[in-house]
Task: inverse folding
């Protein structure tokens, strides 16, 4: 199994596919999933000559189910451990949902300073912040995230069926056709991770304020978001992030759900490729 051990002793699993000298694309998965979330994108970009890398966040997937460190600083540092282990340069970092926060924080905290980043992509991503505050009155109230924690603690297995079968992929919308394999694959990825990491991760993705990170990033960025995202509502996310980034392109996808990388992979992949090649 391919893995790297971080400075605090956490084993981080990663995939590294494609030509060694192809431009690297690093994919950052959403909560509570794993690098398997990106299979469709990774296979697509391999076919176009890119080197693709994706890791399981600490406590998720095949990485160590540790008790501590489930916050954005550790997530960014764990990403750095993978990047340095593989000596990735001129990399494009692509993050979905919580992974968007992780990718952004890595670029701002490490990637730009070390000259290892070429571009950043945020898809259905949590920045600037999900939690309602004086600075972001359009955010969600704490009660929403307390509900996530309660559902996870009470019956994680059932919660991990209800979320993908409902709002994550928009399967709860009138006329939508549920794809059982997609729901089952989401459940499989979620249940492979640790409950403690997932519980603590709710605070990480909902309460972290990425404003300063967004302001500090200067590499070209592409912000992609569905306007029917029921998990990370667009009103408090993508347009605000794009405005804070210094060099960003914003594209809003009418009717697309939070899990748009799966439900509309053909469109997402084509747009990602065009941005990376630009």
Result:
């Amino acid at each position: 199994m391919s893995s790297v051990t971080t400075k605090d002793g956490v084993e981080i699993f990663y995939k590294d596919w494609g030509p060694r000298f192809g431009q690297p694309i690093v994919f950052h998965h959403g909560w509570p999933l794993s690098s398997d979330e990106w299979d469709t994108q990774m296979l697509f970009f391999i076919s176009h000559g890119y080197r693709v890398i994706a890791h399981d966040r600490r406590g998720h997937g095949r990485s160590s189910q540790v008790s501590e460190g489930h916050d954005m600083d550790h997530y960014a540092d764990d990403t750095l451990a993978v990047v340095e282990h593989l000596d990735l340069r001129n990399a494009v970092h692509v993050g979905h949902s919580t992974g968007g926060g992780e990718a952004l924080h890595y670029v701002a905290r490490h990637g730009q300073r070390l000259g290892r980043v070429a571009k950043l992509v945020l898809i259905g991503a949590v920045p600037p912040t999900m939690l309602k505050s004086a600075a972001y009155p359009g955010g969600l109230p704490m009660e929403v995230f307390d509900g996530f924690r309660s559902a996870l603690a009470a019956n994680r297995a059932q919660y991990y069926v209800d979320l993908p079968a409902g709002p994550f992929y928009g399967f709860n919308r009138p006329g939508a056709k549920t794809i059982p394999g997609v729901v089952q694959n989401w459940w499989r990825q979620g249940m492979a991770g640790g409950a403690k990491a997932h519980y603590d991760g709710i605070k990480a993705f909902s309460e972290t304020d990425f404003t300063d990170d967004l302001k500090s990033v200067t590499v070209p960025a592409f912000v992609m978001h569905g306007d029917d995202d029921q998990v990370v509502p667009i009103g408090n996310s993508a347009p605000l992030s794009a405005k804070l980034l210094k060099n960003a392109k914003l594209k809003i996808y009418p009717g697309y759900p939070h899990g748009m990388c799966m439900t509309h992979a053909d469109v997402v992949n084509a747009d990602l490729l065009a941005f990376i090649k630009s």
Summary: Strands lie at 3-5, 11-17, 24-28, 51-55, 91-96, 117-123, 221-226, 248-253.
